[in-house]
Each structure stands twice: as structure tokens, then as C-alpha cells.
Amino acid sequence: MTVLDNPDMEVDVLIIGAGGCGLSAAIAAHDDGANVAIVEKRDQPGGNTALSTGSIPGAGSRFQKAANIVDSPEVLIADLERIAGRHELSDVSDKLSRISAELCEWLVDSVPARMSLITDYCHVGHTVPRLHAPASRRGQDLMDDLLAGVEKRDIPLAVGNPVQSLITSAQGEVIGAVIGGKGVETTRIKAGKVILACNGFAANRDLVKEFCPEIAGAEYFGALGSQGEAVQWGRELGAGLANMGAYQGYAAVAYPHGSLLSWTTLEKGGILVNSRGERFGNEDIGYSGYARMVLGQQTEVFAIFDDRIKAIADKEEEFRELVNLGGIKSADNIEALAALFKLPAESLAQTLHAYNEAAQGKQTDSFGRSKFALAPLQSNLWICRVTPGLFHTQGGLAIDTRGRVLKKDGTPIPNLYAGGGAAGGISGQTGAMGYASGNGLLTAIGLGYISGKDATQVLKDSAQLKGHQS
Q1: pLDDT tens for each residue of 443-464
Q2: Among 37, 36, 157, 56, which Cα is nearest to 106's?
Q3: I need a labelling partner for 275 at 20 to 30 A (CA). Which of 22, 113, 340, 368 fits?
Q4: What ranges in 237-390 are assigned the alpha helix state H?
Q5: CB-based contacts of 387, cutoff 8 Å, min separation 6
């Protein structure tokens, strides 16, 4: 669509998607003076942010300094590169690392969001404690704070209003969007800048098979709106794509409950076994990279840990709920533990013996695990049946360090930005091994913050900013 005469509405910045990325972009743009509106196709905001643990890395934040934790953006850059390698958006990864502390402090000070530094342990991919999260470790609490920030600023948010298409000028500039659908009156919104803050494509089976075939057989546990519209719109505009083969998996979704079994249970020394009572890999790989290995077992899989580990995981609200629902069961000896899920007791005993010997340094772990934390495992033992899941894709539209969407030749598509699942991620070029804890929200919240501020500044510089409406 190339003509936009007599629009139904006009704003400085139109944001498509009301997850963490979209709400952060809206607040950042508004606070810098822009007239902003948000549209969301689902009946309620949230996206994958609401389903996450709400954790965001902030390297060198004042909260780390108060806890006497020495960190810096350079250390975070090195950590991310160590596990993800250099990839198609390494410059974006470096940029996000450099503003990560500023981002976490902005969330607390300006939104404001109720977040604090997690100091209990280092998370997957990180060499120092640097994740900042709600006390509950629930992304919904972060979403609630972002929504309160949007409401406090009187930023319009229209749910149940899907975007049908982007509107472009004859010169190829994005100048707005058409909103409409079943039961929704068609509305044409003109915008100085458009930010795509919608989710990725993990709920689109065809796109997952095309770009992430190794995890295509896993159940999807993320936000239902992740249908890949941003990829479709970008392709129509000649946009480049980046890191399309990367994704975030989760190796231990409690079955049949569907909630996450806290990876704390594995990081602190727990193990995963198949229905033969055997381990099948190095749990140190992390919850994302290990999902493919759990899927490959083609049998039931179980997490096993002990009382001491459970006591640490009990600090997390979702874990306590899973315990209360009976999703985790205990026994005071291996035979009784095996009987809970009809596992072969002798095989399970041999597995636990070999693992505990390795944890005590008496032999080398046959799968190369080197971090045992609280292991060897002791009675009481706990067990939870788990299944692997796909949570979100980590590939999307190619962007620059300002969040601008790029054409295949590397030049920006005028007026179009992307963040969160709509944009390429920072977890490597393919697979799930490059995912570090917090990568998803660092790109979502971080790119929302960056793009909202940049879009507003460009409008100011070109004297096109209309500003807040009275």
C-alpha cells in the first residue's frame, strides 16, 4: 500500500506489539517527547516477556557495585562471544552489552520496575552474577510494571487490533500501518516512525521447519502470537534476515504441568536421566542447548536433585507452585525414587553412583561435566518428569545498532525499526548453544529502549516531532 491520504490517526511513533520490547520503546520515546501509540493483535499484552523469568543482564550496574561484584560491558561481551561466537549481529550484541547497566538502572529508576540483582549464583553463559529480575522471577511482574508505566504516561494501548500491513510511500519509506481484522474496524495510522516489537516465528510451524529444523519436533511453550508477521513484512520490503537458525529452547518443562522446572535444580548439581535411568549428556551445556538432546532421547526424561538443591529452588515462586501441584516427588532412597516413575532401579543406582564419584573427583565424568556445585547428590532425592520445549526464535530482521531495519544491501529501510522477536537476536547464527540467560529480554527491552529513543531523536533533528498531544 503506497498512499495514505486522510489517515484515521497520526502519531510520531507507532509501536506494533505490546510485549516488553513495545512497552519499553513506548516509554522511552514518550519520555523523550514523542507522541506514541501501541497496537497489539492479542486480547492482552505480554508476549514472551510475560512468560519469562524477567531476567536482564546489566554489566557494571550500580546494583552490582553495591554487592561488591566486579563486572563490565567488556566482560559481558566476552561471555556472550564465548558461547555464541561472532555472528551476523555481533555489533548489536556489543551495543546491548555496553548499555545493559544503563538499561537495568533505567527500568528501576524511570519505568519504574521492581527489580533487583540476583546474587545467588551465576546463570547459564555468565561468569559473574549480573541478572536483574523481579523478586518472584516472573516476567509477568515486569510486564505489570511496564504496563503501569504506560498507563501513568497516558500512552494509548489498543489490544485486539492486529496490523494487516505496513504502509509505504512511493519512495519506499514506511509511513504507517493498516489496523483491522475480524470484528475490528479498519484504521489507517500515519506515523513518523514505526517500531516492530511483535514476537518471533516460533508458533509458525512452517517457518520453524524452514529455519530451525532441529527443534521442529518440540512442543512450543511461548507466546501464542509468535506467527512471524515481522519476517513476512520485512521480506515484502526487501529487508535482510539475520541469525535465522538460532532459537531458545528449554530442556526441562515440567510434564504434564507445562511450567518451567527451575534450571537452578540442574545448575546446582542435579542431573537428567532417560527412561532407562541413564544420563545422556553434559547438563552444563545449559537449558537452551540441552533441549535438542532431551528431544533426541525419544523417551521420557526426568530431572533428579536433592533436598539441599530444592531448598535453593524453593526461593522461586514458580518452583514452589510446581511443588504444591505435586509436579515434583521425593523419596529417601534410590529404589523408592525409581519406583515413582517405574524406572529401572539398578540402572538408576549405577548412574547416580558414577555421577557422584565424578562430583567427588574420584573419576572423570563420562560426559565431560566439570561443574558439580552441591553434588554429590544426597538423600532425600527429588524427581520431576520433564519434556523439551521451544520458547522463542532468536532470528529475525537484520538491524543496526540503532534498531533500524536493514535491506539486504545493508542500507536502512526508512522509518522502520525492530526489536525483540521481530529482530535478529544475539544468540549465535544457528542452534541453541549460543543462548545465555537473559538474552531474550536484553534484546527485547534493550532494543525497545534504543529504538524508542533513536526514533524520537531523529524526528527532533528533522523538526518532524509533533510531541505529546494535550
Answers
A1: 999 999 999 999 999 999 999 9
A2: 56
A3: 368
A4: 264-267, 291-297, 307-313, 317-324, 334-340, 345-359
A5: 219, 253, 255, 294, 301
Within the chain, how many helices (H) and strands (E) appear? 15, 20
CB atoms < 10 A from the CB of 379, how many?
13
Q: What are phi and psi of 97, to 5 degrees?
A: -65, -40
Length of the chain measured in residues? 470
What's the confidence (pLDDT) of residue 124? 84
- Mapped onto helix, strand or coil, the DSSP state of residue 51 is helix
Rounded Cα distance, 293 and 322, in Å: 24
Q: What is the pLDDT of residues 251-278, one digit of tens each?
A: 999 999 998 999 999 999 999 999 999 9
**What is the rounded average pLDDT of the residues 183-212?**
94
Residue of 322, 320, 308, 316 whose CA lies nearest to 254: 322
Residues whose CB falls within 8 Å of the CB of residue 213, separated by 6 or more in sequence, listed in order: none
The string of pLDDT tens digits covering residues 397-428 is 999 999 999 999 999 999 999 999 999 999 99
Q: Report whether the peptide linkage leading into residue 274 is cis, meaning its omega lies within 30 degrees of zero.
A: no
On the question of a cis peptide bond just before residue 388, with omega within 30 degrees of 0, the verdict is no
* Average pLDDT of span 320-347: 96
- Cα 91 → chain centroid: 19
| Neighbouring residues of 5: CB distance < 8 A, sequence distance ≥ 6 | none
Backbone φ and ψ for 56, nearest 5 degrees, come out as -135, 125
Tell me the C-alpha distance between 172 and 299, whole Å: 52
User: What pLDDT is stored for residue 469 in this prediction?
Assistant: 64
- Residue 383, pLDDT > 70, answer yes
Q: Say if residue 380 is preceded by a cis peptide, omega within 30 of 0.
A: yes
**292, amino acid identity:** R
Residue 61's identity, in one-letter code, is: S
Of 395, 459, 390, 465, the residue nearest 426 (C-alpha): 395
For 58, other C-beta atoms within 10 Å of its C-beta total: 29
DSSP, res 46: B
**pLDDT tens string 18-55:** 999 999 999 999 999 999 999 999 999 999 999 898 99
Position with higher pLDDT, 120 vs 113: 113
Q: What DSSP letter does each residue of 251-308 carry, written as one string?
A: EEEETTT-SBPPTHHHHTT-EEEETTS---S-GGG-TTTTHHHHHHH-S-EEEEEEHH
215, 432 contact by CB (below 8 A) = yes
Give the relative orientation of helices 439-461 and 20-31 as an angle to the nearest 10 degrees: 30
Contact 442, 17 (CB under 8 A): no
CA distance 210 to 175: 31
| Phi/psi of residue 309, nearest 5 degrees | -70, -40
Q: What is the mean pLDDT of the chain?
A: 95
224 CB-near residues (< 8 Å, 6+ apart): 42, 203
